[in-house]
Design goal:
Chain lengths: ~240, ~575
């Protein structure tokens, strides 16, 4: 059942190349192979200098988000047969500075994550046992707890491409996870931060983020819920 | 840019992050180094839960949890450590909830709990609901929550700094030297940096990548264990490596034991729940070593599905609601990686290399010890999977990996905060980084030679085929020269990438060297242990032998191959008994 697949990779080595350029590789693949498997075949059998991040290889660590056939995906969570053709293009995430080959600079992304105070804020002293939270209260923010900070959403967002200062979908998802947690008391501070010019209002509800999320989070909906909370607070 | 800190933490999984949090809260200048971004650490892949005797559904006691841990470890568990684990599990889980961890909840708002393999009520009477969970992404939520708290506490992170050597003052561990810091390779530009500290914690995780079929991330290459070994610290109990029963066929991705905790069945080719013949009381919830052996037996006797090398995990009777609410991620894995729909059809599974019970020997305060007399290596600590305290003995129970890294990560941070007070910084030789610089340069400068990836693949084949679930003298004796031949080939390893920027080719070559050290001690330790205990199953010695082998193995680096020594097991409450379920 194996087949030859044409994998085109946008490569760039700052120590050798003037700029990014496409390199084509013909790789033997099984339809059940992940795109990550193809990248490994190139690295281990053809050219060891091909560079990409990866760790868990099953979609939970968030290392290997990249642009695959024009969409942001995790290379370890997309199979060759799902792509439906024998030509596969792989490029680094758009909108982020490229360090080498498929590796982008994530420092700015994580700085934005940190800017929304992504941690439980509470002044009340904790009880000796667990705080109580009903299953319904827990369900309210379940979706946004799934985020693995892979940056697929933020780097798919045209508003982010146009306004690199925009805090971006991933940071808003992280804020949402706390704003709607019944135990948290820091919603005011977070909503203040996100009401800023580079906050939620940059969202144009294009839905690229929701489409890109490998965890199936309804990202645009989360952004709209945060926007609604800001409006409610101001009213 | 060499720098000084009071404390350094190598690895940013659960153990490293909790230690960092304790140190930051105590006001100790601390840095955390990770070869990844912290949220990529493999703690995040843990699924099913974290056990603590909260008793939120039914009566439970930490003494029961302690007993299960000791029995699960086939009595190789150090019982003082198991007592610490079971007692402190309760307060660490409550603390995690206070930090914001989104546990699933009972109808009255308490932390929800479910059954898990080997965890029982009243010393083995039947399964108990002890595993606290957040759907089937408990590890993800632990990693996220601890990272969030570290950001809140202002912990300093060195992201994508690959630690490539440990530094000592006054000679290596055997010479009585003291840990003095680390050498880190900055992945972004290939710079080597010496970081000096009064206390160094190794929290680098496991080394499952020495096997072909594994649940482990690519990054789990035994870095901390091998670096300590190269500086005179033994590897303890390396022959005990856990194969998790339910991995995705061929690629080893884990399908959580939570599937069985929620009531899932294992079936052979005729549809029989075969565990009734191996563990009539606990059935599918027997400990992992037993379930993995049972699966191998079924396959060997021709009862694998269609006579092939896998059996079925069947959750179809649980219904869509339970599957989607409590097992969403593993359902997704089965769909994506196997094209199977768990709601309506059984999932093909086979055992997958999962967890190292062995590692760097430590005491109850995460201080590294280097001999049978428990002599402390000043300034060096280890916690989490890379450490061996030993709470897991010969076989770890499900969820106890998370309990271990939480309880002993926390203890490590607290102990380090106490130990750095009033202590001077160690002395570092000005050329401290030169040995590792030379080792890396030797690889880079070699124009041609062996491929690290090929050596790693060959190693993974040998370990899987000869040092897996069942072992014999013949298999192990054949493995040893093969591993040594791979070490010899490794002496000629070369890389294609000669650059300085983000050179993963070079770092992966370095990692293969660590895996080879771990594999060699595993084989040598397994050959010498002529008994079957926990995960170490010798077909030529099928019985447990408490007269000769109720002791821990210590494997030291030596000329011509590892030298073995033994250390007594600590027994406090529970005398060894035959292990049946």
């Amino acid at each position: 059942m194996t087949m030859q697949v044409d994998v085109r990779i946008l490569r760039y080595d700052p120590e050798r190349d003037a700029g990014p350029h496409w390199v084509a590789y013909s790789v033997e693949a099984d339809p059940m192979d992940r795109v990550l498997d193809l990248l490994h075949k190139v690295k281990y059998e053809v050219d060891g200098s091909l560079t990409f991040r990866r760790s868990c290889a099953h979609g939970v660590c968030g290392s290997d988000a990249m642009l695959i056939n024009g969409r942001n995906r995790l290379a370890c969570k997309i199979r060759v047969e799902q792509l439906g053709r024998r030509r596969i293009s792989v490029a680094p995430l758009p909108g982020l500075p490229v360090i080498k080959d498929l590796v982008v600079d994530m420092d700015g992304f994580f700085a934005k994550y940190r800017s929304v105070q992504p941690f439980l804020i509470t002044d009340s002293p904790p009880p000796t046992r667990e705080r109580r939270q009903s299953p319904e209260e827990r369900a309210r923010y379940d979706d946004t707890t799934k985020c693995i900070l892979c940056a697929a959403c933020t780097s798919s967002c045209p508003s982010f491409w146009a306004q690199p200062g925009y805090v971006g979908p991933a940071a808003i998802v992280q804020a949402h996870r706390f704003i709607f947690d019944s135990r948290d008391e820091g919603a005011e501070e977070r909503l203040e931060i996100l009401a800023d010019a580079d906050g939620v209002w940059r969202c144009r509800t294009i839905f690229n983020c929701t489409d890109a999320c490998p965890r199936g989070i309804e990202v645009t909906r989360a952004i709209l819920e945060v926007s609604a909370a800001i409006v409610e607070r101001q009213a | 840019m060499d720098q000084d800190f009071d404390a350094l933490i190598v690895g940013a999984g659960g153990a490293g992050l909790w230690a960092a949090l304790e140190l930051a809260q105590a006001g100790v200048p601390t840095a955390v180094l990770s070869k990844l971004y912290p949220t990529r650490s493999h703690t995040g892949a843990a699924q099913g839960g974290v056990c603590a005797a909260l008793g939120n559904h039914e009566e439970d006691h930490w003494e029961w949890h302690m007993f299960d841990t000791v029995k699960g470890g086939d009595y190789l568990t150090d019982q003082d450590a198991a007592e610490v684990l079971a007692r402190e599990a309760i307060e660490t889980v409550i603390e995690l909830e206070h930090m914001g961890l989104p546990f699933n909840r009972t109808p009255d708002g308490k932390i929800d709990q479910r059954r898990f393999g080997g965890h029982t009520r009243n010393y083995g009477e039947g399964p108990v609901r002890r595993s606290c969970f957040a759907a089937d992404r408990t590890g993800h939520m632990i990693l996220q929550t601890l990272y969030q708290q570290c950001i809140k506490a202002g912990v300093q992170f060195f992201d994508e700094y690959h630690v490539v050597d440990l530094l000592f003052d006054g000679g290596d561990a055997e010479a009585g030297g003291r840990a003095a810091g680390v050498v880190a390779y900055r992945i972004a530009d290939g710079e080597l940096i010496a970081l000096r500290a009064k206390a160094v914690l190794l929290a680098t995780g496991g080394f499952g990548r020495m096997f072909r079929i594994t649940s482990n991330a690519w990054s789990l290459t035994g870095d901390g264990v091998a670096l300590a070994y190269r500086h005179g610290i033994p590897m303890q109990d390396m022959e005990f490596y856990q194969f998790h029963p339910t991995g995705i066929v061929g690629i080893g991705i884990l399908l959580s034991e939570a599937a069985r905790g929620e009531g899932g069945y294992l079936r052979n080719d005729s549809g029989e729940r075969f565990m009734q013949r191996y563990a009539p009381t606990l059935m599918e919830l027997a400990p992992r070593d037993m379930v993995s052996r049972a699966i191998y037996m079924e396959i060997r006797e021709g009862r694998g599905i269609g006579g092939k090398d896998f059996v079925h995990l069947d959750v179809t009777h649980l219904g869509r609601k339970v599957i989607e609410e409590k097992l969403p991620d593993i359902t997704d894995f089965a769909r994506i990686y196997q094209g199977v729909e768990p709601i309506s059809e059984p999932v093909p599974i086979q055992p997958t290399a999962h967890y190292a019970m062995g590692g760097i020997p430590t005491d109850l305060h995460a201080r590294v010890i280097h001999d049978a007399q428990r002599t402390i290596v000043p300034g060096l600590y280890a916690a989490g999977e890379c450490a061996c305290v030993s709470v897991h003995g010969a076989n770890r129970l499900g969820t106890n990996s998370l309990v271990d890294l939480l309880v002993f990560g926390r203890r490590a941070g607290r102990q380090m905060a106490r130990d750095v007070r009033g202590v001077e910084l160690p002395d570092l030789a000005p050329d401290a980084i030169e040995p590792v610089r030379a080792e890396l340069r030797a690889i880079s400068d070699r124009p041609t030679g062996e491929s690290a990836a090929r050596i790693r693949a060959d190693l993974a084949d040998v370990m899987m085929d000869n040092v897996g679930v069942y072992r014999t003298e013949a298999l192990l004796s054949a493995a040893l020269p093969k591993v040594r031949a791979l070490k010899e080939r490794y002496g000629r390893v070369h890389v294609d990438d000669k650059g300085l920027v983000f050179n993963t080719d070079l770092l992966e070559a370095r990692e293969v060297g660590y895996l080879l050290d771990c594999a060699e001690t595993t084989v040598v330790s397994a050959l010498a242990r002529k008994e079957s205990r926990g995960a170490h199953a010798r077909e030529d010695y099928p019985a447990r032998d408490d007269v000769n082998f109720l002791q821990h193995t210590l494997a030291y680096r030596a000329e011509g191959g590892p030298r073995l020594a033994y250390k007594p097991v600590t027994i406090t409450r529970f005398e060894p008994k035959p292990r049946t379920y």
